[in-house]
Specification:
Helix content: over 70%
Distance between the termini: 58 Å
Largest sheet: none
Structural class: mainly alpha
Order of helices and strands: HHHHHHHHHHHHHHHHH
Oligomer: single chain
Shape: elongated
Number of strands: 0
């Protein structure tokens, strides 16, 4: 028979099978299976999703480029306001369209020049993305905060609070946001701007944010209300209530951590919707106006010149499609990372 000392020597002499090696391997496997927070598990699953990682990089690149638009424009040597067509009459033909082929794309104008005015399209797009994304991020933050507070409150408190909040949500859902803004903007201008003055950009931005916020939080609030209604009767909430925890502590410590997933997923779906909504309002002529660069205003200009200069539509259109597509795919990846059983 083999003695215990011989067995120990055999394990120690065999490469990779020593007692320390087995312990390290077990610890490593244990670390893979246990001891991780839900956030760490989500991040591990998300990193394995190649599509999600690529889309996240693209989305972050859009935000980084928009935030650094002044720096990029300075390095590029141009700005979105100068009428280069007036400075150099060779840039535009007698009809106001770029004289060079492909919309005037050249080493000096990477994306070409704007018909009629002769502005640089590249810097117009940079600053236009900055305007649209800035407004949409502000609206998304306000919508998420408002929807979370009111949805969780309605679901946990219940009773009359839940009833009246539900009726307010039903009432506000009857208003289409874009049509409401089309009717709301002239009222704002008439109240705050004298008839002889141009409407300041900050008033238009404020109106865009307020209307989209006021008419955009109800879907998230209704979703979180349903989640909290099912959670408030669970054992861990009852246990916290029995121990004397205040309603605020129960909401903050017990309920909110359990509704983080729908909040994050809905946020990734809402932001591109607000981007396209803001661009649509500017396209209709009731959002951001000249001379402020805006994504939607570029579409408005392109709609009147695309027959003679289709290149002008190419870059803002491609950028919008890539951004919205990547953000929607990112939302799917975030959802699958939090709930791998959901599938696509």
């Amino acid at each position: 028979m083999t003695s215990p000392s011989q067995t120990s020597a055999t394990k120690t002499d065999t490469p990779g099978l020593g007692t320390d090696g087995l312990k390290k391997e077990k610890d490593h496997k244990g670390g893979e299976l246990v001891g991780r927070s839900p956030g760490q598990l989500m991040w591990t699953r998300f990193k394995r999703d190649r599509t999600g990682m690529i889309c996240a990089i693209v989305v972050l690149a859009f935000f980084a480029i928009s935030a650094l638009a002044p720096v990029i424009a300075k390095l590029y040597g141009k700005n979105p306001y100068t009428l280069y067509g007036n400075d150099n009459f060779n840039l535009l033909d007698e009809f106001g369209y770029p004289a060079a082929p492909n919309g005037g794309i050249s080493g000096d104008f990477w994306f070409g020049i704007e018909p009629s005015l002769g502005r640089d399209v590249f810097t117009q797009l940079l600053y236009g993305m900055r305007t649209s994304l800035g407004i949409s991020v502000a609206v998304t933050i306000l919508v998420v905060v408002t929807g979370t507070i009111l949805g969780v409150t309605a679901g946990y408190v219940g009773g009359r609070t839940d009833y009246w909040l539900g009726r307010v949500i039903d009432f506000l859902l009857a208003f289409p946001s874009q049509l409401t803004f089309v009717a709301f903007m002239p009222v704002v201008v008439a109240i705050f701007v004298p008839p002889s003055d141009e409407t300041p950009t900050y008033i238009r931005v404020t109106a865009l944010v307020i209307v989209q916020w006021a008419l955009g939080w109800m879907g998230l609030a209704r979703l979180l209300r349903g989640q909290v209604l099912s959670l408030r009767e669970r054992e861990f909430v009852e246990a916290a209530r029995i121990t004397g925890a205040s309603p605020w502590r129960i909401i903050r410590k017990e309920l909110l951590p359990n509704v983080v997933t729908p909040i994050l997923v809905q946020t990734t779906y809402m932001l591109p919707l607000f981007v396209t909504a803001e661009a649509g309002l500017s396209y209709l002529g009731v959002g951001i106006m000249e001379p402020t660069p805006d994504w939607g205003r570029m579409f408005h200009t392109a709609g009147s010149v695309y027959e003679n200069d289709p290149t002008y539509l190419l870059f803002p259109g491609a950028a919008m499609v890539i951004f919205v597509l990547c953000f929607n795919l990112l939302g799917d990846s975030v959802r699958d990372a939090f709930d791998p059983k959901s599938g696509r």
